[in-house]
């Protein structure tokens, strides 16, 4: 969308008591309509509905660093430890709406000790990547999906919604300024972390009336620098990541802190990640901080790719959605992926440990893998479950026969060797 068009759409009515929707997945446009139709902020004197400004790209102010950091050698990059020279900040208040965006030197954030984020975890974030193609073009992968998810997370926390297209424009400007930070080596990228926090100082649980949206960027290397290494999972039943009616479908900071103890206890038992099992049936939900796919043959011998449905407990992953779309396009003949079986059933359905074990025992389990922005695909070779290990088949180079063609296509798109309208150009 052009900046002029964004300007035209940038005024909206916001509601201090934004309604929380039960749907985990909705476009920004639909979100905006809903905010327009719900409770509205009113002028205390006249009672008239007040329109507050949305993110306004034309107000962007850029202050470049006078002290640029030395770019680290790409071989030394550890995930999320190095940050680029600049960051984006956009303040919000309940009375003035979104303020002017600014790109500034990367630096600290001043918060009052009573800031709501510090007490009530009013914090949400996103994770997406920018890739440098061999011809120098820099693209982001499906940023619109992250904007939609960020708006649904904001809605769930009573934090302000915003125009996703406008934020994409601002992120493009940030990535462009720091484009030298995108490593040139294959498999490397720039990890982008948009975040929103409640900043007003007030004890007492209530919707924040001040917030800050900021975006930082971190150059990253391949998640598996020495090739794919399948990971062992601990089938976790002592702790839960999500519950019906909870917040598992939203990317809230509060979902992650309680997972650390579970992760530590899985690591102590010799496993790399938690396989989050839900309910007495032990339904498989997610793997660590990734979505989960199981590939198995049915009793009729037909291969099926299963992922748990978006029932409110599953984060609607961008990689999950992309894998499903590529697999469905393959099956419908829109784009055949070499190596993927012609006959493949694709299911978003519940699957429990009993079914996985039964398929494994009958030699019908093909593979099990996690998906996420950081690693794209992570194969699994073992599940520690109720005192013993379930050994999962893996391919020669780690990935199995279903994940490999999907991974090849996805990474080909992200790195620009395969053309796709999922890529949004930052700079050519
Ligand atoms: C809990 C959780 N599930 C799944 C994912 C995968 O989502 P995506 O593919 O959008 O990175 C993530 C990572 O963002 C996550 O934190």
Structure description:
It comes from Hygrophoropsis aurantiaca. This is Aminotransferase. Keywords: Aminotransferase, Transferase. The protein contains 9 helices and 21 strands. With 428 residues, it is an alpha+beta fold. Strands 3, 4, 5, 6, 7, 8, 9, 10, 11 and 21 form a 10-stranded mixed sheet that branches. A 6-stranded mixed barrel has the order 12-13-14-15-18-19, surrounded by 4 helices. Helix 7 (318-332) links the parallel strand 16 and strand 17 (344-348). The two termini are 18 Å apart. The relative contact order is 0.13. The site of pyridoxal-5'-phosphate (PLP) has 13 residues, from strand 15, helix 7 and strand 18.
How would you describe this structure in keywords?
about 425 residues, 21 strands, alpha+beta, ten-stranded mixed β-sheet, Aminotransferase, six-stranded mixed β-barrel, aminotransferase, disordered N terminus, single chain
How much helicity do the residues have?
Answer: 10-25%
Element-level helix/strand string = HEHEEEEEHEEEHHEEEHEEEEHEHEEEHE
Estimate the mean pLDDT confidence.
Answer: 90
The unique ligands bound to this protein are:
pyridoxal-5'-phosphate
Radius of gyration: 22 Å
Helix/strand structural class: alpha+beta
Q: Describe the largest sheet.
A: 10 strands, mixed
What sort of overall outline do the alpha carbons produce when their principal axes are compared?
Answer: globular
Oligomer: single chain
β-strand number:
21
Which parts are unreliable, with pLDDT below 50 for 5 consecutive residues or more? 1-39
Distance between the first and last residues' Cα: 18 Å
Question: How much beta, percentage-wise?
Answer: 25-35%
How many helical elements?
9
């Amino acid at each position: 969308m052009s900046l002029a068009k964004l300007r035209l759409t940038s005024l909206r009515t916001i509601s201090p008591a934004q309604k929380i929707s039960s749907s985990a997945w909705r476009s920004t446009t639909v979100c905006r309509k809903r905010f327009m139709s719900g409770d509205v902020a009113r002028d205390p004197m006249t009672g008239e509905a007040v329109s507050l400004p949305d993110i306004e790209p034309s107000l962007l102010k850029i202050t470049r660093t006078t002290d640029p950091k030395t770019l680290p050698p790409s071989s030394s990059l550890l995930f999320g430890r190095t940050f680029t020279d600049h960051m984006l900040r956009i303040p919000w208040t309940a009375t003035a709406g979104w303020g002017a965006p600014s790109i500034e030197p990367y630096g600290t954030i001043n918060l009052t000790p009573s800031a709501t984020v510090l007490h009530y975890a009013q914090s949400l974030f996103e994770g997406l990547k920018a890739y440098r193609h061999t011809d120098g073009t820099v693209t982001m992968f499906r940023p619109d999906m992250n904007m939609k998810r960020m708006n649904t997370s904001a809605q769930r926390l009573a934090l302000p919604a915003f125009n996703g297209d406008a934020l994409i424009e601002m992120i493009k400007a940030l990535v462009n300024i720091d484009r030298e930070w995108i490593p040139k080596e294959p498999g490397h990228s720039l990890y982008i972390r948009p975040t929103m926090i409640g900043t007003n100082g007030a004890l007492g649980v209530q919707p924040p009336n001040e917030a800050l949206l900021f975006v930082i960027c971190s150059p990253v290397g391949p998640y598996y620098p020495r090739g794919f290494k399948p990971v062992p999972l601990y089938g976790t039943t002592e702790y839960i990541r999500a519950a019906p009616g909870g917040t598992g479908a939203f990317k809230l900071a509060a979902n992650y802190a309680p997972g650390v103890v579970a992760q530590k206890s899985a690591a102590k038992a010799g496993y790399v990640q938690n396989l989050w099992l839900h309910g007495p049936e032990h339904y498989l939900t997610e793997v660590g901080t990734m979505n989960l796919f199981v590939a198995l043959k049915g009793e009729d011998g037909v291969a099926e790719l299963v992922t748990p449905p978006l029932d409110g407990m599953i984060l609607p992953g961008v990689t999950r959605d992309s894998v499903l779309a590529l697999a469905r396009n393959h099956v419908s003949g829109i784009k055949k992926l070499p190596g993927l079986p012609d006959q493949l059933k694709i299911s978003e359905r519940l699957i429990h440990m009993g079914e996985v074990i039964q398929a494994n025992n009958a030699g019908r389990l093909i593979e099990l893998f996690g998906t996420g922005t950081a690693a794209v695909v992570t194969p699994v070779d073992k599940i520690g479950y109720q005192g013993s290990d379930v050994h999962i088949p893996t391919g020669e180079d780690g990935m199995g026969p279903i994940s490999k063609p999907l991974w090849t296509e996805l990474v080909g798109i992200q790195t620009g060797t395969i053309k796709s309208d999922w890529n949004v150009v930052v700079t050519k």
